[in-house]
Each structure stands twice: as C-alpha cells, then as structure tokens.
Specification:
single chain; alpha/beta; seven-stranded parallel sheet; three-stranded antiparallel sheet; globular; binds 2-amino-2-deoxy-6-O-phosphono-alpha-D-glucopyranose
C-alpha cells in the first residue's frame, strides 16, 4: 500500500529566492555536522544554488572541508575531464570554488569499461560512507529524478540506464556537437530514497506540470519524482512558476 506522507512545500517568489532557500538548508545541515554526506545534483536549476554556496563560503559563512559528496549521475562514455560531463559541471560550479577535499568527492565514472561493475562500486561507496545525509535533487520536465526516467522501479539502485528522447533534447545545449549520450549511470530511486533527507529544487514554468504530478498525481513510475512522497523527510523548494499548477483545496 502506498503511504502518502505530504512533503514540505516551500514556495518562493522567484528563482533566486528558491535557490537561496535550498542553499540555506544545505548550509544549516553542514554547520550542524561538518562531515555531512551530501548528495549533489546537476542541471541548470542547481547553478544558482551552487552560486549561493560559493558566495557563503567566500564570506566565511560555511566550510566544506570535511564534507563528503556523492553526485546523482553521469553520462555514459564521458571522461571526467570532458567539458560536457557532470564532473566538469561540478568542478566549474562548486568543487573548484570552495574548500572541499577532492578525495571526498564522488561521481559515478561514466567512462568505466563495465558500467554495471561501476554502479555496484558506487552503491558500496555510498554505503561505506554511512549513507547520504542530505540529497539535493532537480526534476526533469517528464518527472525524472537523477536519470531515473518514467518507468523506473522504485526499488532501483545505481545502474546504467537509457535516456529518453526528451531528456536528451533538454540537455542538448551542454553538448557543442549536439550529440547527447544515449546512456548514463544514475543512483536508483531506491538509492535516493535511502537518504536521510531530500531537498528537491524546481524553478520555472517548464517544471510546473512535473511538480504537480509529483505532489498530487498518482504515486507510480509514470512520474518517478512521485515516489518521493514515500519518504518521511522531503522538501520541494519551488519558485512561483514551478508551483503554479499545485492545487489547494
Ligand atoms: C538532468 C539531470 C537531473 C536534473 C534534471 C533537470 O538531466 N540528470 O539530475 O535534475 O535533468 O535539469 P535542469 O535543472 O537543467 O532542468
């Protein structure tokens, strides 16, 4: 039977305030526990969140020196130094700008010869670190989380996956030749739900339908983000545009 714990929904006037609210949750948790295990997301939505974290670090308000990070996903076939990789994104937007210890940073290796083995290694690394304390998420317009596309199993673990046409289209801008990989390696929905706390950041009108589906549609594989309602401690941080289709009654 599905449990329907209502997530906390935080709605801010604009994208900048939504990103800063989500960043504040990260900073509060890291101040409470300097060796926080932080799950990280990529995508356009997270850029202003990371900008806030970098600004706070520069202002001496937060340190990442003892934190451990695990990214959600990576494209298959891309080396870490490929400018289109999520590894490159993370270096650009966060890792190279704060005092994080490179030895404590973890991303799946999309260039691994055996992606299944790499996925198992990644799951074990998360387990060895004691599990994720706080997982950041974005949401795809089709309701995906990480790269768990519609149809994904709620108990799925880190594994290689195929990307949908719409997801590849949405991420075309990150590939100068327009050739988005067809596969990726992603934490599973089960992996994500094992985090102690989850914060999903959604901004802009393109996410409004997915946010409504996630919060008010049926819990099921048609909208992978809907499975988050099975988690006891999840917050959706939205701007007004992303929250526009939530109905109140
Ligand atoms: C990407 C990532 C997700 C991200 C989502 C939304 O493909 N794999 O982790 O949340 O799609 O991206 P954006 O924030 O650019 O809309």
């Amino acid at each position: 039977m599905d449990t329907t714990t209502r997530p906390v929904v935080i709605i801010r006037d604009d994208t900048a305030s939504a990103a800063s609210s989500a960043a504040k949750i990260v900073m509060d948790r890291i101040r409470a526990r300097s060796d926080l295990v932080l799950g990280l997301a990529t995508g356009r939505t997270q850029v202003p969140l990371y900008d806030h974290l970098v600004a706070a670090y520069r202002a001496g308000e937060v340190s990442f020196a003892h934190a451990v990070t695990f990214n959600l996903d990576e494209y298959a076939g891309l080396r870490r130094d490929d400018p289109s990789s999520f590894a490159a994104y993370m270096h650009q937007h966060l890792f190279d700008e704060v005092d994080i210890d490179p030895a404590r940073v973890n991303l799946p290796d999309g260039a691994a010869a055996d992606l299944d083995l790499e996925a198992n290694r990644y799951e074990k690394a998360i387990e060895t670190a004691g599990g994720v304390d706080l997982q950041l998420l974005g949401i795809g317009a089709n309701g995906h989380i990480g790269f768990n596309e519609p149809g994904a199993d709620p108990v799925s673990r880190t594994r290689p996956v195929s990307l949908s046409g719409s997801t590849r289209q949405a991420n075309r801008d990150f590939f100068p030749d327009g050739r988005v990989p067809e596969r990726a390696i992603t934490m599973g929905i089960g992996t994500i739900l094992d985090a102690a706390e989850i914060v999903l950041l959604a901004t802009g009108p393109a996410k409004a339908a997915a946010v409504r589906q996630a919060l008010q549609g049926p819990i099921g594989p048609d909208c992978p983000a809907s499975f988050l309602r099975r988690h006891p401690r999840v917050s959706f941080v939205c701007d007004r545009e992303a929250a526009a289709e939530i109905s109140y009654h």
